[in-house]
Specification:
Layout lengths: L5 E2 L5 E2 L4 H17 L19 E10 L10 E4 L4 E4 L5 E8 L2 E7 L6 E6 L5 E7 L9 H19 L6 E4 L1 H5 L6 H8 L3 E4 L6 E7 L6 E8 L6 E5 L2 E3 L2 E4 L2 E2 L15 E7 L4 E6 H9 L10
Parallel strand pairs: 3-9, 16-19
Antiparallel strand pairs: 1-2, 3-6, 4-5, 4-7, 7-8, 10-18, 11-14, 12-13, 14-15, 16-17, 18-19
Length: 301
């Protein structure tokens, strides 16, 4: 069959067989320029990466608004970055690695109202002063609040020691300084729990509620559909969904519930028996405890 030629826009004929040569001609210039270092070697269409943000240090002090005295043990963190630090005995804190741009700084301590303030962080860093307003209960005396918190901390420690198996406890300072965005990612990073997806049929072990003489009472642990949880662990030769409690309340979605809590919102995290049971306590819970201590739910053996 006779070869068919095509007419180019200028009226000349050009065979299909010559088109690859023309394509090479079009690319030869840029490719040669790239080889000579005139264009980025990463590619003809490569784009420059945005420069990394400058990171600086925020320092400051947290004071009682009424008395002007330092507030020790206050949690100060960056709302958008989800990490921070605790104040020392002088109320002083220091947060490193802060992007030099607009930030929202949050400060909280038991017996005080939480405060959040937007600040501009210059490239030279910044020093700030934060004043916390006492809650009404504090007007009756700081001692009562401190004693109530200490009472609950002692109860938590006593319960941690009440069982013969391994216990790991992560305190507020460890959680505040973590770069992880939520408690579940913190758990994977800080423990050696074998992360596994939940297969069909694996249930969430949790305590069920059953009526007792019209007042209610806790029944023995029961299994809830595994469809409620997607994160499980490998423990003693099998995949399980741990029992998870948030502020002493069973979490029906197991480990998945921990995704809802930034590490900056958690006062303490307890991991029992190689992950069989996990308990997390928020600052809001500890604030309630500061005002009115309450009994803790027993651990399941």
């Amino acid at each position: 069959m006779e070869r068919q030629d095509e007419m180019d826009p200028n009226g000349s004929q050009e065979s299909r067989s010559r088109r690859p040569a023309r394509l090479w001609d079009a690319l030869a210039g840029p490719v040669l320029a790239a080889a000579l270092g005139l264009l980025p070697a990463s590619g003809l269409l490569a784009q420059e990466e945005a420069p990394a943000p400058i990171r600086v240090t925020i320092e400051g002090v947290v004071l009682d608004e009424v008395t002007g005295t330092p507030v020790a043990g206050a949690a100060v963190y960056l709302e958008d970055e989800d990490y921070g630090a605790l104040t020392d005995a002088r109320g002083v804190f220091r947060i490193e690695g802060v992007p030099a741009d607009s930030q929202t700084v949050v400060a909280t301590q038991f017996g005080y109202w939480e405060i959040a303030a937007a600040i501009d962080v210059p490239e030279a860093g910044v020093a700030i002063e934060i004043e916390l307003k006492p809650r009404p209960i504090m007007l009756d005396g700081v001692t009562a609040v401190a004693d109530n918190v200490d009472t609950m901390v002692r109860r938590l420690r006593t319960r941690q020691r009440s069982l013969p198996y391994q216990t790991r406890v992560f305190d507020q300072e460890r959680l505040l300084r973590s770069p992880e965005p939520d408690v579940l990612e913190f758990l994977w990073r800080e423990t050696n729990l074998g992360r596994r997806p939940c297969p069909l049929g694996v249930g969430v072990t949790t305590a069920g509620w059953s009526p007792a003489r019209g007042l209610g009472g806790w029944s023995l642990p029961s299994q809830v559909s595994g469809a409620l949880a997607s994160h499980c662990i490998w423990r003693r030769g099998q995949v399980i969904s741990p029992r998870v409690y948030i502020d002493e309340i069973p979490a029906m979605t197991g480990l998945d519930a921990l995704r809802n809590y930034p590490t900056t919102q958690i006062y303490a995290l307890e991991v029992y028996s190689q992950g069989a049971e996990i308990r997390a306590y928020t600052y809001n819970f500890m604030q309630r405890i500061a005002e009115n201590p309450e009994a803790l739910i027993a651990l399941w053996p």
